[in-house]
Amino acid sequence: MTMDVKAVLEFATVTRGLSLFLQAVLNAAIPDHDADAFRPPRTEEPLYLDSAVEWLLGGLSHWDAEHFLFIAERGYLYEHNFAFFPLFPVILRGLAETLLWPLSGWLSVRGRLLVAVALGNTALFLLSVVALHALSRMVLQDRRLALLSSLLYCITPANVFMTAGYSESLFAALTFGGLFLLEKGFTFRACLALSIATAARSNGLVNIGFLLYLPSLHAISQIRVYRTTTKGHSKVFHYIWVIIRLLLTSLLGTAIIALPFCAFQYYGYRTFCTPSVSLERIPPALLSLAERKGYRVPDENSPPPLWCMRPLPLLYSHIQDVYWDVGFLRYFELRQIPNFILALPMATLGVMAAYAYFQANPELCLRLGLWETGVNKGLDKPIPGFFNPRVFVYVVHSTVLLVFGTLCMHVQVLTRFMASSSPVPFWISAHLLLLNEPLLHRRKTSTPNIQLQTHSRNGCKHTPQNPIIALLPHYKTCSPTTQSILGYFFSYWVLGLALHCNFLPWT
């Protein structure tokens, strides 16, 4: 383990511990808001330690986390539960029934699931930060920028969603890990990781773009090599073989990544369009909730819902349309202005990343980074840093997420949507810090750590390992850029815990 990875893991562990501590304190200190959210009745008798666990970890179970916990405990009972993909609930139930099974005499299933959320998301976040650091080192080719990006990720503005019972930490670990494998050339293993990510969140489908783009770069590079090293029929044969392999890789990889989404939609179709469950098998308390709230449950004695009759009966699209009113420009209303303001900092980072990258590499962007225009240009010896040609596809991916999230989703979701799916918000933030913060300016040294000099009690100087922590005592004298970025990250880090964990509007 390198010093950088160790420093990142230590900081990530500290931030996870602080997050769990603060959510418990803030959840106890602030009364829960009476929000119109999914709150299924408890049908299991509480055991000895349930009240203690609920007091300590109850803040992790609010808003969408309640859906994941319900699915882990009861399965997919209500129609709108199918908006939440199955991998995270499966992991939670697996932890509750294996690692936490010895506690079954003191904790109910619900209590063990809450403990599983705390343990599982902590471990998954640590995996995600290691994967992000490895991906950043490979793509950016800049040790210092990779380290600072990973440390910023540890205080991500989407922190509460990485800690609570959401699938963001799981999705980030699988996505960053899969992209790292893809960059290394391990295409099949990358496809498996990205496929599993699609079983956690639907936007895993967008990762197909990386599978189509990165192997295309490799194929073009091979064709360039064959053009100078082979002649005659051999050259044509090699060209054909590269193209065929690229097509097979793209088709097979796309199928692998999309398979979990398709399988889950088929499961939803079978559950509601050809049901084999009668209402008598549903607990009365849960059935009463469905009748009171208008939730659809599978019933073999009732006619199938109308969406089953569509040419492409996708349950996920139906749920987003009917239950969450998600659609193109549907959120563009005056009463949603506070939510647009909430998403503005993340949107600003996304816009700045795209603009700065295009300004630095206009020709590369116009030719989509697919071929070279000069002898010394290309991906073999890229320029280190954020303007590296290898960053191009990540900026495009981030921009696609930004545009789609702004126009077609509940815009307040944009913060966690981008922070768990793309490394670009952290790369551009670290790039801006290194560019504008005098205390972080490079010196002619091999160490990537911050060059802030601090004095110990005996008067000796030492260089701090963590530049984020080292900057905090100097916050008032930092550049406006540093104050803005660190202020955004830390304020959302704390505000998210205070509001989300008390059913206040932070979703």
Question: Can you give a write-up of this model?
Answer:
The chain is mainly alpha-helical and 507 residues long. It has helices at residues 3-29, 50-57, 64-74, 87-97, 109-140, 143-154, 159-163, 168-184, 187-198, 208-229, 232-273, 284-293, 315-322, 337-360, 362-366, 392-408, 414-419, 424-436, 467-471, 480-500; strands at 454-455, 461-462. It is 61% helix and 1% strand. Strand 1 (454-455) and strand 2 (461-462) form a beta hairpin.
Give the structure's gist in a few sentences.
The protein has helices spanning 3-29, 50-57, 64-74, 87-97, 109-140, 143-154, 159-163, 168-184, 187-198, 208-229, 232-273, 284-293, 315-322, 337-360, 362-366, 392-408, 414-419, 424-436, 467-471, 480-500, and strands spanning 454-455, 461-462. With 507 residues, the protein is mainly α.
Could you give the count of β-strands? 2
**Which residues sit in consecutive blocks of at least 5 with pLDDT less than 50?**
375-380, 442-464
Spatial shape: globular
C-alpha end-to-end distance: 36 Å
Content-based structural category: mainly alpha
Q: Could you give a short account of the major beta sheet?
A: 2 strands, antiparallel
Q: Give the rounded overall mean pLDDT.
A: 90
Strand content: under 5%
Rg over CA atoms, rounded to whole Å, is: 25 Å
Order of helices and strands: HHHHHHHHHHHHHHHHHHEEHH
As laid out across the biggest beta sheet, the strand order is: 1-2
Helix content: 55-70%
Tally of alpha and pi helices: 20
